[in-house]
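Q: what does this look like with heme C bound?
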Amino acid sequence: MKTQKNNLRLLSILSRIVFIVMFCILFTSCVEEQQIEELVQEVDNGENTQEPQQIDETLVALPGLPDYTAGYDKWLKLNAEPIPPVPGGDPHNGTKNVYVNQERVTIAPDGEQTFPYPDGSIVVKEATRPNKDYIGLIAIMRKVAGSDPDHNDWEFIEYTRNDPDDDFTILARDRVCWGCHARVEDLDYVFTTLD
Ligand code: HEC
């Protein structure tokens, strides 16, 4: 009689253990499943992926200008002070700034500027016309390997607009520009040097 009672108690303890073990297994697998579900949801919501890139308004080219000029005014500025209009006739009439898409250390490794500019260089000059308060002229020199070996592979192009709400349109290019710029062939055709 006593052993039977003992057996019963043992059985009841055993079944409890089995129940607890089962419960634990079920619970952990549930948690795992839940975690996976949450993860899947996070990925779906984009929480686990990289932040979508902010569209930087300043990196959009001015209307009518080629995309490669986007954000040019964040590039290295060659001139320390704005370049004033040249009295008695200015080829790029206005107050000017000249930017290049290179690092200072690249074009002036020891503090002194070296030439020529590397392939892929883009020099952008903006001009605010006299008595105006918006950029009316953009002159560009862009170095594309093999494009024009006679002029150090620079492509010259100039855009203008007469109203701040207008798109820029092409005024002139290459041939018109070579005469003057050849005067500074030893500076790789670029008048403005790094200040
Ligand atoms: C009558 C001479 C003359 C002509 C023609 C001319 N330029 Fe210039 N350009 C200059 C001078 C001088 C500078 C530097 C001083 C300044 O901007 O006032 C200059 C500056 C520039 C700059 C800034 C880099 C630099 O050389 O200092 C760019 C870019 C430029 N010109 C592009 C052009 C393009 C494109 C054309 C043709 C559509 C052109 N230029 C035609 C004389 C000329």
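Helices lie at 2-45, 104-107, 175-181. The two ends are 107 Å apart (CA to CA).
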